[in-house]
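Fig. S4 source data, part A: sequence.
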Amino acid sequence: MLTQRPTPAFLSQEAARRLPRYALLLLLAAFILSGLASQDLWTLRDAETFGIALEMVRGGAAEWLMPQIAGEWVTSTGPLPAWIAAVFMKCFSGLAGDVGAYRLTSLLWFAISTAAIWYGSWRLARRQEAQPVVFAFGGEAAPKHYGRAVADCAVLFFVATFGILARQHEPVPGTVLLSLAAVNLFGLAMTLRRPCAGAFVTGVTAGLTALTTSVLPGLVMLGAAVTIHAFARTFPSSRDRRILCVLAGAVLPAALWAGLIALAAPEAGLAWLREWAVGQAQLLNLADVPAILWMSRTTLWFLLPAWPLALWALYSWRRQLDRTHILVPATLVIASAVGGLFTTQTGAEPVLLVCVPGLSLLAAFGLTTLRRDRENLLDWFAISIFSVTLIALWLYWIAAGLDFPPKMARSIEMLSPTFDPEFGFGPFMAIVSGLLWIVFVAWRLTHRPVVIWRGPWLAAAGMTATAVTFLGLWHPAVDLTRSYAPIAREAALEARDLTGNPDPLVNGDGLPGGVRALFAYYGPVHFTSGSETSSLKLVRVNRSFIPAEAVTAALARPHTDETFYLVTNSGH
């Protein structure tokens, strides 16, 4: 007797045809390995994590437990990202240099994120309640193939997400938070087979956010997990036991960390934890209007192309919202939205990152309910957006080399005056990625593929081609424009000339952690710490402001408002 499953999913066996494993793995490898092209630190968030890891490599237990840079505490972040980066630097600095070894850490986090999303999605999509409707004469996708297709699409949506492109190539706290959110999703799916172990893993990922970015993302994960365990009817074992495992897992990482700090440095550790707690409390507040507007605007582009399909999934599966495969990712996304109402604009981005794995899975489920003509919208979106982007990247690179067209060449000269395009390995890889993109586009334009993963594949392939092309063509120009190395070396030279000391101390109070890390590494500028004093102080001001106590000319990168001066230290 034929029965119709109460589900909006409609997928044939042909549409669920296997995406070759080698193709998926090569795409993921190309995406993440492209980030190794640059050997410089472009952002202060990247430099801060690098500086903390470098202190760990050179320091002792206190440096490993309490993040610090050049003798100054950093309480805005936890030690977990720097722990892994420091291990990589200890193992690979001799082969790849300090920055290169640090960059390798991003490979680990990306592998964890994609693997956790794939296996978590696969476990949820194979459930009986998630299967597509049965065709009258057969031919619907089998559970195994359906689960694999949904998992592939979820990973491809994750790679194609606009907001995580730059972050995935930097092993910063936000990148680690993405991995924790992905493992959190996997832990919830794991609970279906191993209830206590899966619940504990879910709790641990929530607790580890305190050692990564801030407490709020962990509270979002914890609240979502408790809600899911309270209302999901398909999880085995006792509900109370599972919730207890979640809470125990959430408390354990922070308790162990605080305990180790108390053992290693009782007085300094207590002061560090107090300063860290004050910073955490400042992030917990009712969101004001600017923060809400920022999140609303940012979400529109940050979560493309997944969010429209995720919304469609919620609508399509509205009668099955209590089913586990929809309840889990939907609760994670909704919890992130609610969490965004209780934080400042500074703490909003980590909360936004928490929803990315769940949103990718929702988008994959939404794709299974679309009619063929609507599925094509994602194909054309990917083809148009990424084709235009790749053409623009190449045109500007050619203009920089030929000085034609003049307007485009002048734009590049203004942004990076000393950049001179040269053909090498980077441009060669950009050509290869461009040709492969043309092949994919031609395949789509000349065929009518029915496979469900064609749209997500084009979006992920376009994002990968953009990353490879941008970093292959433009990383030397960005190094010249964004690098702090020249001004750090100039500051160190000026300090030596002014003091007559080959290794002078400079006061760096008030400088962001990332700036201290860059000047200390590239200069090297030796900053004061503790009771040390110095007659010189490094200050960071707007380009239009010249401090009265300045003893050097302005030290600045091209086309930025950020300027540095060495000034006489009045507090000396």
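Fig. S4 source data, part B ends here. The radius of gyration is 26 Å.
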